[in-house]
Amino acid sequence: MEEIIAVEHLSKYFTIHNLGKHIEALHDINIAMKEGEFVGITGKSGSGKSTVFKCIYRTYVPQRGSIWYNSKKFGPVNLTKASERQVIYLRKHEIGYVSQFLNVMPRTTARELVKQGVLEMGRAEDYAEWEAEKMLAHFELDRELWDSYPATFSGGEKLRLNIARAMVKHPRLLLLDEPTASLDYTSKLRVRELIEQLIREGTTMMGIFHDLEFMENLCHREYTLRDGKLVDRAAVNLY
Amino acid sequence: MKDFEQPVLRVSHLNKQYGKGCASCRDAGGMVLNKNFCPVCATVYACRDITFEVYAGEILGVVGESGSGKSTLMQCLYFDQKVSGGEAYISSYKSGRENIFTESSQQKRYIRNRMMGKVYQNPVLGLKMDFSSIGNIAEKLIAAGNRNVREMEARGKELLEHVNIPVYRIKEAPRNFSGGMQQRVQIAKALSNNPPLLLLDEVTTGLDLSVQASVLDLIKQIQRRLKISVLIVSHDLGVIRMLADRTIVILDGRIVEQGLTDQILEDPQHGYTQQLVQSLLV
């Protein structure tokens, strides 16, 4: 397998039992990415962009198709079928996810939150501390905030913390789910700079962005979703 | 490739029933049961064919409504109840080769005293309310074979400090303590023998929110520092969301769904789990 990730014929629907409803979310999605690529996913709200990510991250269970991920630890793994423990391992060590919302542990400081990411990879306490501080400084989070609870942070600060938490693990594959949503222009530029830097560092990334301007000259390729289906089936090469 | 790690605890086909069962409920495969109750012979099927694994350093959540069999499951694992059938293996006991349910009662005591710790919802079940707090811990240490008083005292002090019981109160009986403090003493006691497996049964139920928070933080902190495996039973999805990596959903004594906790919460498959998640307040 040459690709780092290959989504093949992925279909996902939701069955809501007490409403007797069946909601089609994704239909026959095919996406492939090589290592070091940055691929953008575009489409209107509700077109299924985040659903693709959540299937990759196994927050959602797809009904059909496979998601082959070339793991450093396990070799090629089908993420739709991998054991829960394998997925937990991959989340800890290889696949990062940045959403527009910050999911925080209550009563956990920013520093602890980032540090935890390193600790759960089995690193030593002082190394984790050092890495966390480096990351927080790198993403220019105000030093005064390091030992406060993120619940009180502004949108931009939360987002930077969110990215720092994902990046501190140096994931091989990073999923960015609308990381610029609800940010002001300056903060957006900051995120853009970060992404450019990650591209230079060779991180494989898949990103969902609402505003196309932001994507300009950033993504190597782009897929568009409409009503849970890929438009044109193949990615538009932006070069 | 799937077995890249070994489970600390492996439970397979655990059954627990109260009553003998009759021809109509045994053969029908649960079809005639009213939830988990046989209307013909009044047998209660508390746990039915429960199979799961707990891995090193993970927190596995067990959710379900009252009467679903969660606590019975915990009681079976801690030998408070005799199972009706099924097997369980602990990796640190005879290399995980012996079914602990069929061991002698002496061996069961050995396993319970050295390889497990349990915290009950009701502190009366887990603590001697009239003993001193440190005495409660010593009791578990003595059961685990410890005989050195000075050592036990030091260990007790260390543990109680760890769970934020002030040093000047460690000789006091848990009877005098608040609910949150009693729970913390129970946790200290359960941890005293450095067990690879900690069983927590509704430990925060009935505590007020801030006390609940301090107990939850303590559990998380303990699990991170000591890297022990935790099986936590709760009917509160908020607790499970905060603590558990993976979650099992039990209904009428059966596992109806299991998965990664975020998957259970965001994409529940079973009708009952969906109802449970929809009932969540936040």
UniProtKB/TrEMBL annotation, chain A:
Domain ABC transporter, residue spans: 5-238
GO cellular component, one term: plasma membrane
Provenance organism: Desulfocucumis palustris
Domain of life the protein comes from: Bacteria
UniProtKB keywords: ATP-binding, Nucleotide-binding
TM helices/strands, residue ranges: none
PROSITE patterns, sorted: ABC_TRANSPORTER_2
Record lineage: Bacteria, Bacillati, Bacillota, Clostridia, Eubacteriales
Matching Pfam families: ABC_tran (PF00005)
Signal sequence region: none
InterPro entries: AAA+_ATPase, ABC_transporter-like_ATP-bd, ABC_transpr_LolD-like, P-loop_NTPase
Protein's UniProt name: Phosphonates transport ATP-binding protein PhnL
Single Gene Ontology MF annotation: transmembrane transporter activity
Automatic annotation (TrEMBL), chain B:
Keywords of the record: ATP-binding, Nucleotide-binding
TM segment ranges: none
GO biological process: organic phosphonate catabolic process
Gene Ontology molecular-function annotations: ATP binding; ATP hydrolysis activity
Keyword Nucleotide-binding attributed: yes
Location of the ABC transporter domain: 32-277
Protein's recorded name: Phosphonates transport ATP-binding protein PhnK
Source organism phylogeny: Bacteria, Bacillati, Bacillota, Clostridia, Eubacteriales
